[in-house]
Amino acid sequence: MASTRQLLKTCAAGVIAMALAGCTAVAQTILAPRPDLTKFYLLTPTADTAAPAAVQSVGGDFAIGLGPIKLPPYLDRPEVVTRPAPNRLELSKDARWGESLQNGFTSVMARDLAAQAGTRRVIVFPWYNTVHIDFQIQIDVYRFETDGQGNAQLSAKWTILDSTGKSILYTAESNLTQPSKPGDTTDAAAALSRTVGDLSGQIANMLRQVRSQQGAHPA
C-alpha cells in the first residue's frame, strides 16, 4: 500500500512538473518580443524625375500662393488607407505614412507645381500679408487613396484666384487615376504621387492660359 501511495505521489509530481513546464513555454511564447513589421512610406514629387528643361517651361518668374489645401478627415491618421469598396475603408496594420499626409501632399504639390508652372516662387499657405503673390491656388481634396484593384484615386476641386485672393479666375474638378500593383504599398505610394503630379500639371496648364489672357488684356 505504501509503495502504491508513493507511486501515485511520484506520478502526480511528474504531471505537475510537465504542466508547469508547458505553462512556462506558452508564457515565453506569448511574452517573447516580436519583430516590428511596420513600414513607412512617403509621397515623392514627379519633378524629381522630370527633365531639367521642364522647370523653365514658362518665361518669367512669378509667385504662386499655394493653399489652403484641405484633405478629408478620414485621411488624418498615420495608417495607410485603402478603399476596397465605395462605402468601406481599410486601415493598414503595418503600413504607415512617414509624415502627415497633409504635409506630404502639400510639399509634393508645391515642388511639382513649381516645376510644371516654371517658377521658383511657390509660397505655402499661410503667408504674411506683406508677401506678394500673383496667383493663389486653393485645393479641396475629396478622396486620395487606392481602391481594391490597386488604382490610385485623386479627386479634388481646385481654384485659381487673383493676387488679392478675392476674385476667382478659374475653378474646376479633377478626377485622376494611376495604376499600381494590388497589395503593393510601395507601388501605391508611387502611384498616388503621380496623381499629385497630374493635378499640378492641370493647374499649371490653366495658369499658362490665365497669364496669357492677362498679357493680352493688361489691366
Major sheet attributes: 8 strands, mixed
User: Mean pLDDT, nearest integer?
Assistant: 85
Oligomer: single chain
Rounded to the nearest angstrom, the distance between the terminal CA atoms is: 117 Å
- Which consecutive residue ranges, at least 5 long each, have pLDDT under 50? 11-15, 51-58
General shape? elongated
Helicity range: 25-40%
Number of helical regions? 3
One letter per element, helices H and strands E, the order comes to HEEEEHEEEEH
As a percent range, the share of strand residues is: 25-35%
Computed CA radius of gyration, to the nearest angstrom: 28 Å
Count of beta strands: 8
What does it look like?
Strands 1, 2, 3, 4, 5, 6, 7 and 8 form an eight-stranded mixed β-sheet that branches. Helices cover 36% and strands 30% of the residues. The chain is built from three helices and eight strands, in the order αββββαββββα. The termini are far apart. By secondary structure, it is of the alpha/beta class. About 6% of the residues have low confidence. It is elongated. Strand 6 and strand 7 form a beta hairpin.
What is the element layout, followed by pairings?
Elements: H1 2-31, E1 39-41, E2 63-70, E3 79-85, E4 88-97, H2 101-117, E5 121-124, E6 135-147, E7 152-161, E8 168-178, H3 185-216
Parallel strand pairs: 1-4, 2-5, 2-6, 3-6
Antiparallel strand pairs: 3-4, 6-7, 7-8
